[in-house]
Specification:
The complex is a heterodimer of chains A (153) and B (501). Chain A is mainly alpha-helical and 153 residues long. Chain A is 58% helix and 0% strand. Chain A is flat. A two-stranded antiparallel ribbon of chain B has the order 1-2. Classes of the chains: A mainly alpha (153), B mainly alpha (501).
């Protein structure tokens, strides 16, 4: 051999070892484990709770908005950390740059606030009523759902 | 490249001086969202502020004309006449987009409650285009491209309550994500081959060292996927008819001129600098033939598919695919004459396409339809608007005495005398232009020679402002067709790109 492994070769080795490790683990345990399933064992594990319904439910859009806002401020920390490590060396200029950066972010936060994107408006629940007679459509299903009004200021 | 911290900081400080137009646009963006928060009546103030901001940015851009060709921000950003030309083009397209939005009923008070954000996103998109024209590093290219793309997804889906608009936006995002992914993969391959992200360093490495030809070809093809999606050339064109039809018409106009011009700016810079066609004798990767193929298919498919369209916006979408083909012809010549022709043509295309879409907006405001068959009898009912549309379509076809003719003339002459392949392409270009005459003239045919079904002849002229703007664009289209020397000279002087240092 005698040949040096290049940087890409190291990455490839890392990937290969990772894949082999997982596949080997699963295959060996499949070969040597006993196989005695029952209902309780086959249910999805949800932190010890009994799983209810399908996981394919629609989540409230507001979760995404909050997650998005969270990411923005998460990234802010990511940028400010390296900034903090060199702050002493650079001094006033660094402070000015960081203030501009934070100023822009704060303006964004104020904008969200003012436009009501961080108001957690609870939507009116739309619970379908059980039909009283057989084969009768519940009332809530007859009318087309009215679009939720805009929450803009 | 400085290595220690004080030097880097010093360079960044110096670079800020070359970044004034971009800073001005960012400040405008912040100003617009602040105004959006505090004002109650936004429909007049915010567009006006945006226009003034564009003019101020234009002034700063104009000052960049005398700046030395140099790279800034640790070789991320470059200021040269080529970038400045495109910056003027983007500002012009942005200002026209703002003007035509003000008159659009589609984005009027009835349909859109919150118009402030629209202008803010539009400004962000112009900023992204500025960065695209100036990027000299693959990382910066990708970042700028994404800024433009994400802004355009938002604008495309701005009519939240219209299913067509949302559908267009979703399709656009999916195609955009795939082609951005392809482009990043190509870029990572180029980085793997050369160990550089700066396009000048890549060029230096390729001309000095032996690189694997197959890998480089693959990488360049993948990168072309990202650019091709932005310019709407054929194998990557699938999004454009649906997006053009579904998006609000002012957004369609801006996408078809702004995004396309920005894509071409980046494509020309990338392929002419990073993978030069004639480095020193041997070609590292022969992209000229590849571009010839794309241009050929774009011209054929764009023009022939447009024949069957009855929705005017969709027809213009296919015509814009065909125009991407013509523009690629200018790119693949790979000399200064070709690049100059592309730049002139893009400026011409901006005027005539925005004009055509503006007239489509004005007509849709009155008759509520984009269908060619509903345009019957409009020649009598809206004489000025109909005349303006005819002029824009004549220009798009490329007939004299309009600016479209000069643009096509410049591109085709750039192709002459370079060999049979180029000559054949030029001939096909002329022939497909003749095909485009057929579908463009369906519109004037309906407007002038056919009576409307209900026989209505009551005049429906638009406001004085709308008429003035349509007339202004019409005069520009004809004026630049007759007196094209200043614009052509500006394009010629702007071809000087930062060559290898």
């Amino acid at each position: 051999m005698g040949q040096e492994i290049s940087e890409f070769g190291k990455v490839f080795l890392f990937l290969a070892v990772g894949v082999i490790f997982v596949v080997l683990g699963f295959v060996t345990s499949r070969l040597i484990r006993p196989h005695r399933p029952y209902t309780e064992k086959l249910t999805t594990y949800e932190c010890g709770e009994e799983p209810k319904g399908s996981a394919w439910v629609q989540f409230n859009i507001r979760f995404y908005v909050v997650a998005l806002i969270f990411i923005i401020f998460d990234v802010e920390v990511l940028f400010l950390y390296p900034w903090a490590t060199i702050f002493k060396q650079v001094g006033g200029y660094a402070l000015a740059v960081a203030l501009v950066f934070l100023g822009v972010l704060t303006l964004g936060l104020i904008y969200e606030w003012k436009k009501g994107y961080i108001n957690w408006v609870v939507p009116t629940p739309n619970i379908p009523k059980m039909p009283t007679k057989k084969f009768e459509k519940p009332k809530s299903l007859e009318k087309p759902k009215v679009a939720e009004p805009e929450t803009t200021a | 490249m400085p290595n220690n911290l004080p030097e880097i900081i010093e360079q960044v400080k110096l670079s800020l001086g070359a970044f004034v137009p971009e800073i001005s646009l960012s400040a405008l963006f912040l100003l617009v969202i602040t105004l959006d928060m505090v004002l109650n009546e936004k429909r007049v103030v915010i567009p006006m502020v945006s226009l003034v901001g564009f003019v101020i940015t234009g002034f700063f851009t104009w000052q960049q004309l005398d700046m030395p060709n140099q790279e800034y921000f640790l070789r991320m950003h470059v200021v040269d006449p080529f970038a400045v030309f495109f910056k003027f083009l983007f500002l012009g397209a942005g200002a026209l987009a703002v003007l035509i939005t003000m008159d659009s009923e589609e984005l009027g008070e009835k349909n859109v409650a919150n118009i402030g954000e629209y202008y803010a996103v539009l400004i962000a998109m112009v900023l992204g285009m500025f960065l695209m024209a100036s990027a000299s590093d693959m990382l910066m290219m990708f970042l700028a491209l994404e800024l433009v793309s994400i802004s355009s997804y938002i604008l495309t889906g701005y009519l939240k309550h219209q299913i067509k608009s949302s559908e267009a936006s979703l399709k656009y995002i999916i195609y955009g994500a795939v082609s951005s992914g392809l482009m990043v993969y190509g870029m990572s391959l180029i980085y793997g081959l050369t160990g550089q992200t700066n396009i000048y360093e890549i060029a230096k490495f390729i001309s000095a060292n032996e690189v694997d030809e197959v890998t480089l070809t693959l990488a360049a093809l993948l990168v072309m996927g990202g650019f091709g999606y932005k310019i709407g050339a054929v194998p990557f064109h699938f999004w454009s008819p649906d997006v053009y039809e579904g998006a609000p018409t002012p957004v369609t106009a801006f996408l078809s001129v702004g995004s396309k011009a920005a894509g071409f700016a980046m494509l020309i810079r990338f392929f002419k600098v990073a993978i030069p066609a004639e480095p020193t004798g041997e070609l590292a990767f022969d992209w000229v033939n590849f571009f010839a193929l794309i241009a050929l298919v774009s011209m054929l498919l764009g023009n022939f598919a447009a024949i069957w369209q009855s929705n005017v916006k969709r027809m213009l979408a296919y015509s814009s695919i065909a125009h991407a083909g013509y523009l690629l012809l200018g790119v693949l010549v790979a000399d200064d004459l070709g690049t100059q022709a592309v730049m002139f043509y893009l400026a011409a295309y901006t005027v005539m396409t925005v004009g055509a879409f503006y007239v489509v907006i004005l007509i849709a405001n009155k008759i509520g339809s984009d269908d060619v068959n509903d345009y019957r009898g409009l020649g009598k009912r809206m004489p000025l608007t109909a005349a303006a549309l005819t002029v824009f379509l004549v220009s798009l076809t490329g007939l004299p005495p309009t600016v479209g003719f000069i643009g096509k003339y410049m591109i085709f002459t750039a192709l002459l005398g370079k060999g049979t392949v180029f000559l054949t392409l030029a001939i096909i270009g002329v022939l497909t232009s003749a095909v485009s005459l057929y579908y463009y003239f369906k519109i004037p045919l309906n407007m002038y020679l056919r009576e409307s079904e209900d026989g209505a002849e009551t005049p429906m002229e638009s406001s004085a402002f709308a008429n003035a703007l349509a007339a202004f664009l019409m005069i520009l289209t004809i004026g630049f067709g007759l007196f094209f020397t200043p614009l052509a000279n500006f394009a010629k002087n702007s071809v000087i790109m930062l060559v290898m240092n």
